[in-house]
Amino acid sequence: MSYNGLQGRLPYSLGQLQTLQKIDLSHNMLVGRIPSVIGSHNNLTGPIPDTLSGLKSFEYLLMENNPLNTKLPWFMGTLVNLTVLSLSTCGLVGTIPPSFCWLDQLIVLSLDRNNLHGTVPPKLGALPNLCQLNLSQNQLSGELYFSSEFVQRLGKKLDASGNDGLCTGHQFNEQVSQYLGIPPCADQTAKSSDTSHHENSNPYWTDASNAIIKKPMLLYLIWCNLIGFL
């Protein structure tokens, strides 16, 4: 049903099709709140409805390029027959639910170009059938706890770049970190330390809030609009 110029809203009765495995409504002109099944490249908004939790036979869920602007619901991890889940460029916020690690049949997971934050659930890297994982261009942070075997298996189909707070652990050598576009955690710590040192490196500045300076060397009070007594 893609590329058919469909307009208006999708009927909520679609959520009653419990044996539905695949439906493609992408590249139409659908609007309104998300019903129980959706297509990409429309103008559908969030939140993602709980009625989706009843579609246990669902295998493909493609929502990319819809202004959902909502959190990822925990129940999506119960759609255990999902093989493809694409939520790219949906304005998603919040964290990646640990329940996503239950999706053992998942082959493709795309969560790129959103506003997701927090850490990446380590067990995502243990999904046995996962062949493509895109977490790029979010606000994820912390250590990426994926095994080197997982990284090698996915190769270029693993993308977590564009997350400034994300770093790789000791299980990755420098070449792998460069390949992923993610710095080692040691570098992140050093950078943070350097920034802190730089902020307090001005030789003319000291925190004197609890001190009595008996022999001041320099005291700058210009452009302060001071009133009253010192």
Automatic annotation (TrEMBL):
Localisation per UniProt entry: Cell membrane
Keywords (alphabetical) are: ATP-binding, Cell membrane, Glycoprotein, Leucine-rich repeat, Membrane, Nucleotide-binding, Receptor, Repeat, Signal, Transmembrane, Transmembrane helix
Q: Does the keyword Transport apply?
A: no
Q: Which domain of life is it from?
A: Eukaryota
* UniProt keyword Ligase, yes or no: no
Q: Which Gene3D superfamilies match?
A: Ribonuclease Inhibitor (3.80.10.10)
Q: Name one GO biological process term.
A: detection of stimulus
Report the InterPro entries cross-referenced here.
Answer: Leu-rich_rpt, LRR_dom_sf, Plant_LRR-RLKs
| GO cellular component: a single term | plasma membrane
Q: Coiled-coil intervals in this record?
A: none
What's the protein's topology in the membrane? Single-pass type I membrane protein
Which segments cross the bilayer?
none
PANTHER family in UniProt: LRR RECEPTOR-LIKE SERINE/THREONINE-PROTEIN KINASE-RELATED (PTHR48056), RECEPTOR PROTEIN-TYROSINE KINASE CEPR1 (PTHR48056:SF81)
Name of the protein in its database record: Uncharacterized protein
